[in-house]
Design brief:
704 residues, alpha/beta, Helicase, Ruva Protein, domain 3, Arc Repressor Mutant, subunit A, three-stranded antiparallel beta sheet, 34% helix
């Protein structure tokens, strides 16, 4: 125990010196320091008697000795020391605590697990980490987001309502739930926040204040400074080359769900992403995004049915603390400006100031704003003053045209007109030679100007329009494409995304491709284009009409990276090359007019998660061999009136959602509870029937 004696002496000397210095320098704080001294004496008394207790208590001895070992900051050397000192772990049931385990230590997981198995006495290991890959190495499902909601409430109530024995007053219940939600299920946050509110049990206004400004309270309140320090340490640990991405995250309002692909395109436009080691910019950006998610610096908010990330965000606590640390954010010298709904009138002076001072704005967001703001934004003098602008996003703005002066923004890399009433692009857009992304989804633009051919650096062209004509059923939407005059995209060799176009030439870098109005005699040319697109990940095609066949038989070199395949139109036959696409996660077949029997082989589509079979009128039987579709999560069948109930659905053990749309009663009645085929679907958690009533309104019923 000699090492322990030495450690105790160091603790004694250090703490005594700190307390003495505090008292001598702040004589008026004696009453505040005395409780600390009393608590310190209790702790020191415990340590001084450690040796005596260690002889009687194996757990105490092991705790002390493990503490000495952990003084070495290297986790690897600590584990090595534990294995070398088998006496510590061989004869007692122990608890090992490894705090703030980093991603680089994940290779030590097997060695840590050996500690549990060394004596078979039920030892336990507690690990804290913010890295998801570390969590996945220990958890069966690989996911953890703080503690469970019920446990979070329980912990908060115990710390907050001590005087009322953990019971929350009715008038505070809604606020309490809101505060716990903001804490993100994190015990290090819940506990001190609960303690802070424990003296304010009856003060509704104080609770409301904490609820509104919890994130900034952590930054300003000395009682919560420890949480602030912990969160900021997470930020400081982020590699330097990734920190720059937060400049873009700050542009979105608190709690705003950010599209993952939108964020990646903004990173590219800002010049943050560079191609490296043969990887293209999209791939590099996706790796950085995954790294941020792995470090829990951003959180995934939603995914699509195939598991692809849709939206993400920054938790409120991190957002507020980092924003507070960012001293220059929102000031006159900022290079990035965001104007969102409810903040419009306050930002008119900011726009005027930019015009007067000629500030070097690089990034301008104006979303859900008033027409007054847009008058300022499209003013010729203002556009002249932002000549260095790289990103210009006025999605959801109340505008129906773009002024020709937009062509003055020669440095523009990213332009978004999404969800506006704009019906045509000005010819001056040809001057934007550095433009990489043009997003005009959900606008009324139906044709690109001939001058578009000058945009040689264009990478992402997004331009389709959904119109559901008042129907509640999203599958009834009409989709309008964009006509591209001959030769317009011939020089756009860097184009990587092109959605819903009626004419196309060879663009080998495309990741997403959509055809509308395809004719039978155009099938061969389309196949030759697909043969060159080795990076293609989504392919979506609509035939000219329900009677116009789609001929895909001439694809000889299918894009093996393809993940989503949507075929909307009669097929001559199901192309055999589809079975070579081992990366497919989603397939949609609509109006396919396939033969009466569709069979999925034993090892077919091993990664497929979503299967939609829509309007397959001749189809009579669907046969899924055992072992086929092993990862399928969602399946939909629509208006296939001759289809018999597929008995092989019973093999789909992973399906969680099964949808039937407008199927005849002789089909649906057979799978109701108590009917002959109910056993086929009873293992599926959600079985839904969607049908239209006499008025055309969509009605949804559940099996259970």
């Amino acid at each position: 125990m000699g090492d322990i004696d030495g450690a105790i002496q160091i603790v004694l000397q250090t703490l005594e010196a700190m307390v003495s210095a505090e008292v001598s320098s702040h004589t008026d704080l004696e009453n505040d320091v005395n409780p600390i001294q009393n608590e310190l004496q209790n702790i020191l008394g415990y340590l001084m008697n450690a040796e005596e207790r260690a002889e009687r208590n194996d757990a105490a001895r092991n705790w002390i000795e493990l503490y000495i070992l952990r003084e070495d900051s290297s986790m690897e050397s600590t584990i090595k020391s534990l294995h070398e000192n088998e006496s510590i772990t061989a004869e007692a049931r122990d608890r090992f605590i490894f705090d703030n385990v980093k991603s680089g230590d994940i290779n030590l997981t097997p060695n840590i697990k050996c500690l549990l198995n060394s004596n078979k006495l039920g030892s336990k290991i507690l690990i804290t980490t913010r890295y998801e890959d570390v969590a996945r190495a220990w958890l069966n499902d690989g996911t953890t987001n703080g503690i469970y909601k019920t446990k979070a409430w329980e912990l908060f109530y115990i710390n907050t309502f001590q005087r009322s024995f953990g019971c929350c007053p009715e008038q505070l219940e809604k606020l309490a739930h809101g505060i716990v939600k903001k804490c993100g299920g994190l015990p290090p946050v819940i506990t001190p926040v609960g303690s802070l509110l424990s003296d304010k049990e009856d003060d509704l206004s104080e609770w409301s204040k904490v609820r509104r400004s919890l994130g900034f309270s952590l930054y300003a309140n000395h009682q919560l400074s420890g949480i602030n320090k912990n969160f900021m340490q997470n930020y400081y640990d982020v590699p330097f080359y990734i920190k720059q991405y937060f400049f873009v995250l700050w542009l979105f309002p608190r709690g705003y769900p950010i599209s993952g692909m939108r964020l990646i395109r903004l990173w590219i436009a800002e010049g943050f992403i560079r191609e490296s080691s043969g990887s293209l910019t999209l791939e590099v950006a996706a790796e950085y995004m995954n790294e941020l998610i792995n470090m829990s610096m951003v959180e995934v908010i939603s995914k699509d049915s195939s598991g692809k990330l849709r939206t993400l965000g920054v938790d409120e606590l991190s957002f507020c603390i980092i924003l507070s640390k960012k001293g220059s954010f929102g000031k006159d010298n900022s290079r990035r400006l965001s104007i969102y709904k409810n903040y419009g009138s306050n930002n008119v002076p900011n726009l005027d100031n930019i015009t007067k001072r000629g500030l070097s704005i690089r990034n301008l967001f104006v979303e859900y704003v008033t027409s007054t703001i847009m008058v300022h934004v499209f003013n010729k003098t203002f556009l002249k003053s932002i000549g260095l602008l790289k990103v210009f996003d006025f999605s959801n703005a109340p505008i129906d045209h773009i002024p020709g002066e937009i062509g003055m923004l020669l440095n523009l890399h990213y332009l978004s007109l999404r969800n506006t009433r704009i019906s045509r692009l000005p010819r001056s857009i040809a001057k934007l030679e550095n433009l990489q992304t043009l997003d005009f989804k959900q606008t009324f633009i139906t044709e690109l100007p001939k001058e578009f051919k000058e945009l040689h650096k264009l990478r992402h062209l997004l331009g389709y329009y959904f119109n559901n004509d008042g129907f509640l059923d999203p599958r009834c939407m009409k989709i309008n494409g964009v006509n591209i005059p001959e030769g317009v995209l011939r020089e756009c060799l860097e184009l990587q995304k092109l959605n819903w176009v009626t004419k196309l030439r060879t663009l080998t870098q495309l990741r997403k491709l959509g055809f509308m109005g395809l004719k039978l005699n155009e099938g061969e040319a389309m196949c030759s284009v697909i043969n060159e697109m080795k990076y293609l990940q989504l392919f979506d095609v609509f035939s000219k009409g329900k009677s116009e066949n789609i001929d895909l038989m001439n694809v000889t070199s299918p894009p093996l990276m393809l993940k989503r395949l949507y075929l909307n139109g009669p097929l001559v036959s199901l192309p055999t090359w589809i079975y070579e696409l081992h990366s497919l996660v989603k397939i949609r077949l609509r109006w396919s007019n396939l033969q009466e029997h569709l069979k999925i082989a034993r090892h077919g589509f091993q990664k497929l998660k979503v299967l939609h079979l829509l309007d397959l009128h001749p189809l009579k039987s669907l046969i899924i061999s055992e072992g086929g579709l092993p990862l399928l999560d969602e399946m939909s069948v629509e208006e296939s009136e001759h289809l018999e109930v597929p008995s092989t659905i019973k093999y789909l053990s992973t399906v969680t959602k099964l949808n039937f749309h407008n199927m005849p009663s002789h089909f649906t009645d057979r799978i109701l509870p108590g009917k002959f085929h109910f056993s086929i679907v009873k293992h599926i958690p959600s079985v839904l029937f969607h049908n239209k009533d006499l008025k055309g309104n969509l009605q949804t019923f559940t099996l259970r």
